[in-house]
Amino acid sequence: MITIWQIGNTGVRNPMRIQDALRVYSESNLVGKIRTVSGASKLMRLLHSKGVLKNQAGNDSSGSYGRKWRLVFNKNGFTYNLPVRGQSHSGPVDELTPFGNAFLGATTVPAIQECFLRSMSMMMEPLGSEKAFSPLRWTLAVMLLVEERTGDNSISFIEFATKVQTTNPEMDIESVVDSLLKIRSERNTAKSKREFDKQLFKKLGEDYSKKANNFSEYGDMNLRYLKATGIVKSKGKGIVIVAEKHELAKRLAGNLITDESLLSRYKELYAGPSLPTDEESVARIVLDGLEERLKAKGIPYDIDHATLKSAADINNARHAIEELLSQNEEELYAKDQKNKWREIADYMELVIKRGGKKVYDDDTEINVPKEEASSYLEWCLWRAFLAMNTLKNKPYRVRRFKVDQDFLPVGTAPGNGPDLIAEYGDCAVVIEVTLSDSSRQEAMEGEPVRRHVSDVGLQLGKPTYGLFVANHIDTNTAETFRGGTWYTREDVKTRLDIVPLTLKQFREYFVSIFESGRHSNGEIVGMLKECVSERDTCDAPEWKQKIAKSLADVISRKGATAA
């Protein structure tokens, strides 16, 4: 009978939101009080009120959703679980562990990923009796054997869903990979890959006691958690080992089963699990490999000043090199965005609908999770400005939100600053976005947006324009930006140029400039100037109409140019 292991659970599909949820929980009066239905329900409502959750409206009368958050806290070792067989765990149940506090102290995406890597490398998945394994280590072992056989360690979604998450280290890995590659070969020659996948899931479902769609549902969830470790990243709908983590992957895959007691494993999990790179010799090997990658890419670096006398010193140098490699990858990603403008426009369309999926072919699709629509709105605008090119600031300076190794958004930009800053040689554009479309929009956005535009203009010492994008522009918001008045701390009165556009309007403009082949910074600044030009001759409702007409005229002119 087939079983499917689960790293997380489908109630918490995005592991990169766990840190925010744990922080809210740790600062509440619910710590240690969420084992009851009432406590779990209160946790859910609290997470919703703090903006961690967007899709459940805080309704959890059964406590099931709150319970799932507790389970991911426990499973990753961030909070103490129930005692093992009557023995104490050296910590109160559901209170934060030392590892949980370290996780909250992780301030960068790589640091957060390393916490997940440590957690998921622990061998906690039972294999009967006292034996256990790590699904992460098992996945890496399969991928490395696939690489040995084919020269490429990437595996597709269907391969993972049917032949990785359904197997474990007690099975013959050679046979598992044989079966995986057989599926790959048959699928490559199938007339319809989608029909092939459907029939494969149906056939496997005959030997599976639960719903056949669990292969796909759990596969998607498990891959999200695996990618949260930073050791694998997306390749199509599947995954591939991150090149600079290849040596670390080999080390993790070299030890697949443990028979240590559950109590001792929990103690290590709570204290902070070790990694091979905690050993000086392994850390040095990984660092040497990273230096070779920097040289091969021609990226200048200097760690001669660094003290490399301990594993901690070496790992600090490794993290610095990984940051250089990440920045280089992001710069390459930014340069490619002009070739991805249609995909960017499609993502905008999904955000306008507040989430959804668009399928291009059997192996390619894009998806905006409904609960992450706000993050994807910022991300779409970031990609759009990268695509329009000619930015003076680096892509990782344009955005204030975090991205993962696939450059997908990890939450929204923090407060006390703009969402995005696009800097050009002679001017800058501050981009602010929101999914709020009620009369509260002006109250929430009017003051911060004006303050941010003013602050950036003073900081950069050059003309600075504001672009405010939402699915709907409340007329009171438009009136605030039409006036555009702002006083500095020195009581100097300034007039700000801030243009409110709906995402639909911006998308139409964005598509038009690429269809016309004219997408420089001068184009968008010219559009903003044109929209601002008539604001003093009308009130807010009429200005919104004139903005729409100005955009239509700009798009029409570009259409004529393209023709």
Summarize the entry for a quick read.
This protein has 22 helices and 15 strands. It is of the alpha+beta class. The chain is globular.
Verbal overview:
This protein is an alpha+beta fold and 563 residues long. It has 3 domains: 15-278, Arc Repressor Mutant, subunit A, CATH 1.10.10; 285-335, no CATH class; 340-562, Restriction Endonuclease, CATH 3.40.91.50. Helices cover 52% and strands 10% of the residues. It contains 22 helices and 15 strands. Strands 10-11-12-15 form a 4-stranded mixed beta sheet, sandwiched between helices. The chain has a 3-stranded antiparallel beta sheet with strand order 1-2-5. The chain has a two-stranded antiparallel sheet with strand order 3-4. α15 packs antiparallel against α16 and α18 runs parallel beside α19 (475-483). The longest helix has 26 residues, at 311-336. The termini are far apart. 40% of the residues are buried.
Question: What descriptive keywords fit this protein?
Answer:
alpha+beta; Arc Repressor Mutant, subunit A; Restriction Endonuclease; 3 domains; 4-stranded mixed sheet; 15 strands
Provide the fold topology.
Layout (H helix, E strand, L loop, with lengths): L17 H9 L10 H13 L14 H12 L22 H7 L4 H13 L3 E2 L5 E2 L1 H16 L6 H7 L9 H17 L3 H13 L8 H14 L4 E4 L2 E4 L4 H8 L3 E2 L3 H10 L8 H18 L13 H26 L4 H12 L3 E6 L2 E5 L4 H15 L7 H4 L3 E2 L5 E2 L9 E4 L4 E7 L5 H21 L3 E7 L4 H9 L1 E3 L5 E3 L1 E6 H13 L5 H12 L7 H23 L1
Parallel strand pairs: 11-12, 12-15
Antiparallel strand pairs: 1-2, 2-5, 3-4, 6-7, 8-9, 10-11, 13-14
